[in-house]
Amino acid sequence: MTTTKYGTIYEAIGGYDTVERLNIAFYNHVAQHPDLTPIFPKDLTETARIQLLFFVQFFGGPRLYEEERGHPMLRRRHLPFEITPTRRDAWLECLEDALIEVEIAEPYRTVIYERITLTANHMMNTQE
């Protein structure tokens, strides 16, 4: 994780409470996006809970995801889902909207978006 004068991105943006607000905003967008709803469950409660654990860890906070679920193995865990370039873009759009909605300040908004974009690109496993 990239460190800042505040330590980590997690600390710089406000810790758990901010990451939780970001995750809630993100899943509110995911739940309504027509390109994403086909690959997500109708009830996003558990999906969002797991994503929160991942975001906390990914941004440099406590390793909650690994404590509960082991190594992320993101690509492997996402192979059952058809992740196309369109779905990648939709997912990133939802994240960008959530970053703005929660008012994540620069340069952290850009750093988060760029790091997540690398991960999202890695998750693609199906062409259009």
From TrEMBL:
Q: Does the keyword Transit peptide apply?
A: no
Record field: transmembrane: none
Q: Which SUPFAM superfamilies does its entry note?
A: Globin-like
- State the UniProt keywords alphabetically: Heme, Iron, Metal-binding, Transport
Gene Ontology MF terms: heme binding; metal ion binding; oxygen binding; oxygen carrier activity
Entry cofactors: heme
* Family note: Belongs to the truncated hemoglobin family. Group II subfamily.
Task: From the Swiss-Prot or TrEMBL record, give the protein name.
Answer: Globin
